[in-house]
Amino acid sequence: MKMKRALTLFISMVMLFSAVATTGFAEKIYPEKVYQLGIDSNTVWKYLDDNTDPAGDSSSAGYERTSWAAPDFDDSRWKTANGPFGAKKGGADLGYGYVADTVLLGCEGTNCIPTYFFRTEFEVPTLSGMTKLVGDIQYDDGAIIYINGKKAATLDDTAVTPEKKALCHPIDSNTVHGGSNYRYFTQITFEVYDLSILKQGKNTIAVELHNGNATSDNIWFNMTNLRLVDEPIEHVTNLCISMGDDESKANFTWHSTKKDANTLSFVKKSELIDGAMPENVQKISTTTIMSNDINKYCNKATVTGLEPDTEYVYMISGNGFQSNQYTFKTGAKGNFNFACLADAQIGASFGDASSGVFNKDTDTEEWKRTLYRLDNEEQFSDISFVFSLGDQVNKAWNEDEYDRFLDHDFFKKYRVATVIGNHDTNSNAYSQHFNIANESSQYGVTVAGGDSYFVYNDVLFIVLNNANELESADEHKAFMEQVMEETKNINFKWKIVAMHESVYTVSNHANDSHIIAPEGFRNNIAPIFEEMGIDVVLQGHDHVYCRTYIMDGIEPITESENYFYGKGRDKAPTAVSNPDGILYLTLNSATKAKSYKIKDQDFPFAAVKNQEHIPNVSKIEITDGKFSVVTYRTTDMTVVDEFTIYRDSAAKAFKDIDENDWFYNDVDLMGKNGIISGVSGDRFEPYTPATRGMTAAVLYRMKGSQPETGNLDFADIPVDSYFSKAASWAVYSGIMPGTDNYIFAPEQNITYKQFANALYHYAAPKNNPETDAIKWCEDNGVDCGVNDDEEISRAQMVSMISKLKKIVDTVQ
């Protein structure tokens, strides 16, 4: 049964009667003028609900589909009534308090009328000083609004078969089903910027309302609060920087209300003159087309010649319009990090079922929080770009959902790589919002786009469009073979595939037949990935977290001497060296839009599976010899899971140590287990003194599984420091004493005696505290041969920790 409840889709970016400061002008209160145009729920409309085409016979000469929307159209034979208009199984009550004043015919659940038509008039007192026409509308399932015969707004404008299959093109017939096919009606504020379609005096507004399919049992239309306002118009929206062919390029996309707002000026920040663009600033050529939002144009441009670790400034202008300046910084050459997330799916949250309100504000607020984390948390301070693994929006054609996904300052300063998801694929809107590099017009193609690839710092990223259930693995193989040929002169550090639909997952889509059947996508694509030398596959779709074991084809490698167990052998491996197989990661939703439970069945391939109904985001670190992923909860930035793939040696990541160093193997072992890290970037600083804070941190990591910390607060430790929880745990557990009340002294160098005491109490916390810790260390081979009160170095600390870990692992 199809039920209705209101979906609040759009809140104008500049609220009525709020103060807005605009660049280059004195502060002004908007709107200064509002003209209400007399359309509300009680407005009388002419309407047609008899399953006929008001424009006549579509096969006849001179047929014009929208002739019925013209002011001079004769609607004298149409019915007359006031709204709201609607029906549910032929009755007036849609539930949740929504009752139609006028019941529309032909919506009883079988052979439903595809389209209803409405017309009425309104008076415009003046257009002087006005900037846009604004109105509120509730509709189900799709609608097109005309003013004086001109198309003014399109709402869920997608054609659908009577059987509810999206046709992947806009509504082009008066007798076709169309729209979202959601169970709930949509409530939205629409805006019209081209006021030339209006005239002072009498105007005609017409609406065609489309039912989603032939078996729908409800329909709804209600328009209110039509008004003229003088609010400022945001001329540039949906500004996004997609990945270029390689790190030296960036592909820009933006939507504009002006056709000629299409000049992209780009310059190094260091070349600004008193904060202004120089006269000889580089102006980038742009392609411009009409976007699916009929009030906006889609613009694309590519910037080349980008230098690493450089800050650039850019702006958009044209015909008297000029945007603000925006700043964009490139990443460093060599090692790099990026953020990875999945399924923002703006518009998918079900809201409060008890109230009948279905609104996407929940997704939008969670998305804002995720982007805030990426832009402000220390963990992500060094990312070069962000990777979104598909389902950016919930309805492929919905421009409001794209507004909510893209209209954030974050996308003005970071490059973004995107994947086509199943919720993105049924419209070309995806291609109008992302400027995809090296996109195939032959392989993996849907209306949204095709397979693609880019190279970043000698890492190959292949992006497959597997959002169509009928896709062919052989087709993707042909594309990958083409990529390998085109890039054969590059010695890749890593080869990574990104695709939306997961082939190894544990929740709602775990048993999808087109994936797991013997002839399904998994069995066909996994051998191809192996043949192509793929190292890691990044996936989304299932709104759950799943990390596989290293996969040998379709067989999991559950036991291997190459695995490392940083949280103990009773837990999943935390690292692997030189794996002979592929790691598959399925990431949870970045907004909590929808949330699926883990299925109660055996998944032999799953090393880690997690579902806490909390948004996640991951950070991926790449060096020549290391691929590391850490997944965080966006609520508090605690770690969900982490895993590292090492090529050769973990110690090779550090440029200040050598294979001949006596502590090299200890650094390698502790690095692979995630227990130690560098001081900064690629430096380990082995001879720097170890501190009390470092000691607490490494023992805390070795303990694993986030042990009880006691939540102790120390006056000399910031809450967000890397050793805050570790220090609390160390004191709470009796492993290390504080130096005074509420003082831990994390930066104080630690002596051999102090360190030996910490190791002793870590390994044998219930033993007699009077036992000589140094003697215990020496008896167990956990010593470093220095005097009791001599400070130890980081190398000595790691050596002793490595020996202790071997003892602890043997006991376990």
Q: Strand fraction band?
A: 25-35%
Largest beta sheet: what is the strand line-up?
24-25-21-20-31-30-29-43-44-45-40-39
What's the overall average pLDDT, rounded? Answer: 89
Domain module count: 4
Share of helical residues: 10-25%
Classified by CATH, the class of the largest domain is Alpha Beta
Number of helices: 13
Low-confidence stretches: 1-29, 352-358
Largest sheet: 12 strands, mixed
Overall strand count: 45
Radius of gyration: 31 Å
- Per the principal axes of the C-alpha atoms, what is the gross shape? elongated
Instruction: Give the N-to-C terminal Cα separation.
Output: 56 Å
CATH superfamily of the largest domain: Metallo-dependent phosphatases
Structural class: alpha+beta
CATH architecture of the largest domain: 4-Layer Sandwich
Output the CATH topology of the largest domain: Purple Acid Phosphatase, chain A, domain 2
